[in-house]
Design brief:
Number of domains: 2
Order of helices and strands: HEEEEHEEEEEEEEEEEEEEEE
Distance between the termini: 47 Å
Number of strands: 20
Structural class: mainly beta
Shape: elongated
CATH architecture of the largest domain: Sandwich
CATH superfamily of the largest domain: hypothetical protein (bacova_03559)
Helix content: under 10%
Radius of gyration: 25 Å
CATH topology of the largest domain: Immunoglobulin-like
CATH class of the largest domain: Mainly Beta
């Protein structure tokens, strides 16, 4: 209910400013304004290019099935007076339109990589939002080195309801990256300030922690969350006509420890092997050395 009230306030404020400037609303009574003729507007709550980043899908490539949901928003002075049924559908032309703006280019997501059967959505009487509208994705079928988009648009509204001009499409998308995909993580730790002695002095050496995902942040950056310490390793590189070079790594901080500067000990995109070295000081003041080794499946 709080969300509905907030939405009403936003809608009222935006409309009030617009119509006040155009002098379309007349005084209803002394010191009162008449909003009775304002028409409701419908949009996709999670949609719009201004929210494009949040519409990126980072499902692990190891997942067989994942589901994303979105909602139709009935933005009006009051809640829906009756069940309001909206037409929705996949909109391939939105991919073309997006690509004409320049920058990162996308292909339409292949039919085999998703399932979306809904053709309509309903905002029930007394509500401002529809129930979640599901879109099913099959990450294991999606090529991790290609850029794909699945735009879904609000195409028709009931009589008297206006469709938002800039928040009527949600741009689900996958950003391709040559090093993205599923890797096996092998974790080593030394309870010392260096790794001198190799396996013989390690507290843990090449422990197989299982599969992890190199999720693409951009065509030249991927990140992976280590199952060892728990930090996120962010790998950047240069792609020159398919030749990858200049690999660097940064790491996110983890509560309770102080990390040193990480080093990319090995970056082998041909064989899919990456080795990252860093030190950290734990909450007791003891130094540890970590080596994360990632090998692509």
């Amino acid at each position: 209910m709080k969300r509905n009230n907030f939405n009403k306030l936003v809608a009222l404020l935006g409309v009030f400013i617009a119509v006040s400037l155009s002098s379309c609303i007349k005084n209803y009574r002394n010191d009162e304004t008449n909003f009775s003729n304002l028409k409701p507007t419908a949009n996709i709550y999670e949609g719009g290019l201004y929210q494009f980043g949040s519409q990126a899908l980072l499902f692990p490539g190891t997942d067989l099935v994942d589901t994303a949901t979105f909602h139709i928003n009935y933005a009006a002075v009051n809640v829906a007076p009756a069940d309001e049924v909206f037409t929705i559908g996949i909109n391939p032309s939105a991919v073309t339109a997006y690509n004409t703006t320049g920058g990162l280019q996308f292909d339409m997501l292949p039919d085999s990589c998703f399932s979306f059967t809904a053709t309509s959505a309903t905002v029930l009487k007394g509500q401002n939002y529809s129930n979640g509208i599901p879109v099913v994705f099959y990450p294991g079928k999606i090529s991790p080195d290609s850029n794909y988009m699945l735009p879904i648009s609000l195409t028709q509204a009931p009589a008297g309801v206006t469709i938002s001009s800039n928040i009527s499409t949600i741009y689900y998308h996958f950003i391709g990256c040559p090093i993205a995909g599923t890797y096996e993580q092998y974790w080593s730790r030394w309870n010392a300030s260096d790794s001198t002695g190799g396996a013989s002095t390690a507290a843990y050496y090449l422990d197989d922690l299982g599969p992890v995902t190199f999720a693409p942040n951009s065509p030249t950056e991927a990140q992976v969350t280590s199952q060892g310490v728990g930090e996120t390793d962010i790998i950047d590189f240069t792609n020159t006509n398919g030749v990858l070079s200049n690999f660097t790594v940064t790491i996110t901080s983890v509560s309770g420890i102080t990390e040193g500067i990480p080093v990319m000990e090995l970056a082998d995109p041909i064989h899919g092997i990456y080795k990252i070295y860093f030190t950290y000081v734990n909450s007791s003041g003891a130094t540890r050395v970590i080596v994360n080794t990632y090998i692509k499946h």
